[in-house]
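Protocol step 4 of 5: obtain the predicted structure for the target chain.
Materials: sequence only (see below). No template structures provided, no constraints applied. The aim of this step is simply to have a reference model before the mutagenesis design in step 5. Sequence pasted as it appears in the construct record:
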Amino acid sequence: MLVNQKDFLALYPAKVWAVLEQNLIEKSSLDPAAQNLRRFYAAGSVPCPVDTQGRVLVPTFLREHASLDGKVVVAGVLEHIEIWNPSRFAENLSSTIHGFEDIQRSVDQNNRS
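Step 4 output (structure tokens):
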């Protein structure tokens, strides 16, 4: 499944996407944040067939959302693949590197709670 994210697109295997989709379904339908997240993903996700040459067709509305025009960065991220506009990817990576220690602490703290 090809899915929009905030600044990029994510490509999930069907089994992984099914689990994520189920998690969204289980969120309270009365929670406005859950409603917004469901809407964002439902409106911005499409099945993603691969052609005989291994290419993925990215619909125009998703290309526009992620500002993809020409070259892209394809990043393997554990259980999925991310497709980025190169300048957005560079900005995100720079921001991550700049705040790396804080990010590590935050993730570690969340894992402990």
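Step 4 remarks: The radius of gyration is 16 Å. The mean pLDDT is 92.
Proceed to step 5.
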